Amino acid sequence: MTLDLGDAEPTFTDLIVEKEAILNDASLLGGRLIVSYLVDAKTQVESYRLDGFSGIVLALPGIGSARGLRGRATDDEAFFVFTNHNAPTTIYRHDVATNTSSVWAQPKIAVDLDRIVVEQRFYASKDGAKVSMFIVRREDTTRPAATLLYGYGGFGISAIPIYSPAQLAWMEPGGVVAVANIRGGGEYGKG
User: Fold this and answer.
1) Are residues 36 and 94 located together in one domain of the fold?
2) pTM for this structure?
3) 1 falls within a domain
4) Which of 15, 39, 76, 96 stands 20 to 30 A from 141 (CA)?
């Protein structure tokens, strides 16, 4: 929201319209407002002009979690970290002017992570509400396989996509990992 403090009776005006998504963070970078949302348990980042228009979605490296989009308000570059079930925490440099991102620093992993597939699916809870689940597997695991199901849904804590070497060890011999976003977490706001 904006308001003119010079007005005798300042009034609030919407700058960016409220969304169903959970607002995680906002930063002024390169003359644009960069806003990070939690949408269906994954990060979505949008870039707006300072008049609130031109909401451009930033292309992230995959279905995952991005945090800490930081830089100076006058600079055309910013840095953020991204992680996913098949991507260890990596630092990216984002060019605000061209809306492109590139790897700035990435850990070396001795496993071919390109073989790991991350899918997001939705299912209905007992009362019919839509709930998200991430299914992670090797790309050649297409038949029924041993599946490790993880779910947590309490105290507003979200089960967001993060890299886990332990889960990767389960998938290497052909196992599947399913992470259910059980209601009670913070994926869709306070319940």
Assistant:
1) yes
2) 0.84
3) no
4) 39
